[in-house]
Write a structure and sequence with these properties.
The chain is of the alpha+beta class. It folds into two domains: about 140 residues, no CATH class; about 400 residues, Methylamine Dehydrogenase, Chain H (7 Propeller), CATH 2.130.10. About 25% of the residues lie in helices and about 25% in strands. The strands form eight sheets. Strands 1-32-31-30 form a four-stranded antiparallel β-sheet, with no helix packed on it. A four-stranded antiparallel β-sheet has the order 2-3-4-5, with no helix packed on it. It has a four-stranded antiparallel β-sheet with strand order 6-7-8-9, with no helix packed on it. Strand 24 and strand 25 form a beta hairpin. The N and C termini lie far apart (about 105 Å).
Length: about 600
């Protein structure tokens, strides 16, 4: 071999050796950092820090200290952000490892190709060809594998390229029902005639929106989950400490963050601790205990409870009822179907939620169908179950990350749609088949605020991201804004003219529903995690100290009253007729007259 040939080969060997060494060191360092990050992610509860605990204890002793409350919020937010930053670092580290692995393979190839072949005895032609082919094949397979893995990770980062994840494995589940089994005639007709052209003998609010829903409070945030009580005129004055304006008050056995649900003369709540998860039923007129149902002996339920944060617990989702069935889901993944007298009809374990804080999405029930938003770190799904048997009607995979929102129902051009929000999208689904009608990526980060709907517009917003309005028929973006004060837990409520946005730190905004322009903004002494509600032209917003801020739903801020509960609350009230039901930290209250 002449000198001119040796120099390029030697250069390739040197470059390959150095690249391989750098890539190898990089792989080792990133792997160690990722292992440490993974350990911290699993071992450290972001909400269980000594500093945060100390501040919370101080706040318990001085609940009126606004400065201390703000410090708790800021430290809580920093802890949450740190957790999600670590998650992002792990995903980024995985990509870097794949890239470094590819560089190492290329460098190795450079070294090998730069080495001069060793002298060897002459052999018969073709003898070494199989071994040479095998060596080349291994190299091709290794490099191809790295490239495929890189392509997969790149696809995961680009929303439009994401593949639909397979539905979770469901062993021994009953055969799915036909979509029309057990449904009202109008709802069944909607299955055969989605456009609603055939006509039925049902009332004008068909296909499946019984007028009775507007007189009750069947789920979280009321009829359809919209935060509006169309036929209620609740009181505006009470004092939970003196008892003035309080019809009754009862202590709830176990804590929980589920909100009250009311159907005629029954009020429903859930509660939990490390020992039990229960559903409670009270008399709506007197507050007397009626029955309790538990989650014991549910097939498939794990013996070990999942880890959840203290501010979510196992009883964050509210129940749903249609006057015949009572449906309750818990942070363990257990869902119960009860009759109105508390007898268990069915029970299932949907799988332990892969959720950093705990499952908080509340179900909906309509026309004998239960809708469950089961968003988690992987394998997110929207499920429809038969209310009488618990059998699957349908299941739709979702491209959503972990979220804490609840679905809503909206009548769009005579058809009922399910609307769901979760990072990164807002999506509409057909209630009968689960088919996705449209989806738009307008959200990001931790999404805990449920969507709102009014007059053909769907609204979604979450803190540190933006607010957006979408056309309910097509999903087209009408407007978006990142200049508004946005919610992180409480959900907006909308009318044809206004969109009302709460925050956990006390700022409340009224926005033009048509273009997103801020109309007015008011800052209260405290914020809250409850969702604002609309009734009789008034907004009812319960703040964390238990003060109800009542003001006009108009284009100018006009305070009406601020009655006090006498204890803190993070739950959304229920508004029915002339009464208002509130869950406090320890008690369930009924405000109003007999």
């Amino acid at each position: 071999m002449n000198e001119s040939t040796k120099q390029p080969e030697a250069l390739r060997i040197v470059i390959g050796r150095r690249l391989a060494a750098v890539a190898a060191v990089f792989i080792v360092v990133v792997s160690l950092l990722m292992a440490m990050n993974r350990y911290l992610l699993n071992a450290v509860d972001p909400l269980d820090t000594p500093a945060l605990k100390t501040l919370i204890e101080q706040l318990d002793q001085a609940p009126e200290n606004a400065e201390l409350r703000q410090q708790v919020r800021e430290l809580d937010w920093l802890a949450r952000r740190a957790f999600f930053v670590r998650q992002g670092q792990i995903e980024t580290g995985t990509i870097l490892l794949l890239v470094a692995g590819g560089v190492f393979l290329i460098a190795w190839q450079l070294m090998v190709s730069g080495r001069a072949p060793k002298p060897a005895p002459r052999r018969c032609p073709g003898v070494n060809q199989p071994w040479t082919a095998a060596t080349r094949a291994r190299r091709v397979i290794a490099i191809s594998g790295v490239l495929i893995l890189l392509a997969v990770w790149v696809a995961r980062l680009i929303p439009g390229w994401r593949a639909t994840p397979p539905a979770p494995v469901k062993p021994d589940l009953p055969t799915p029902l036909a979509v029309t089994d057990g449904m009202s005639p109008a709802f069944a007709a909607h299955a055969a005639d989605p456009a609603g052209t055939a006509g039925t003998n049902e009332p004008a609010d068909a296909p499946g929106w019984p007028a009775a829903l507007n007189r009750e409070w069947p789920s979280f945030r009321g009829p359809g989950g919209l935060g509006i009580a169309p036929e209620a005129d609740p009181p505006t004055a009470w004092d939970g400490t003196t008892g003035e304006g309080v019809l009754w008050k009862v202590e709830v056995p176990r804590e929980g963050f589920s909100s009250p649900v009311v159907w005629r003369n029954r009020v429903f709540l859930t509660g939990s601790d490390d020992e039990k998860r229960d559903v409670y039923c009270y008399d709506a007129d007197t507050g007397a205990w009626v029955w309790t149902a538990d989650t014991e002996d549910v097939p498939g339920a794990p013996l070990t409870l999942p880890q959840v944060s203290a501010d979510t617990g196992y009883a964050a989702p509210s129940v749903a009822t249609d006057g015949q069935h009572v449906i309750a889901i818990f942070g363990t993944g257990v869902i119960l179907g009860l009759d109105f007298d508390g007898r268990r009809l069915w029970a299932r374990h949907l799988g332990t939620p892969a959720n950093v804080y705990g499952h908080a999405s509340s179900p909906l029930i309509l026309n004998n169908t239960v809708f469950v938003q089961f968003d988690q770190s992987s394998g997110s799904v929207l499920k429809a179950l038969d209310a009488e048997t618990g059998q699957d009607r349908w299941e739709q995979a979702r491209q959503a990350a972990t979220s804490w929102t609840s679905p809503i129902l909206a009548e769009v051009d005579g058809r009922v749609r399910l609307i769901l929000a979760g990072a990164p999208m807002v999506a509409a689904y057909d209630v009968l088949t689960g088919d996705e009608v449209w989806s738009r990526d307008v959200l990001s980060g931790e999404v805990g605020s449920s969507p709102a709907y009014a007059a053909g517009r769907v609204f979604a917003a979450n803190q540190y991201a933006r607010a957006a309005a979408l056309d309910a028929v097509s999903g087209d973006l009408i407007w978006s804004s990142d200049e508004l004060e946005l919610p992180d837990a409480g959900s907006p409520v909308a009318t044809d003219r206004f969109l009302f946005l709460p925050t956990s730190y006390g700022t409340f905004s009224c926005v033009n529903a048509a273009d997103g322009a801020r109309i007015w903004e008011h800052t209260f002494d405290a914020g809250g995690y409850a969702s604002p509600l609309l009734a009789a032209g008034r907004i009812y917003w319960l703040t964390e100290p238990g003060v109800m801020q009542i003001f006009k739903a108009s284009d100018t801020f006009e305070q009406i009253a601020e009655p006090k509960l006498g204890e803190g609350s993070v739950c959304t009230p229920a508004l029915v007729g002339r009464r208002l039901y509130i869950r406090g930290v320890k008690h369930l209250f009924c405000m109003g007259a007999e």
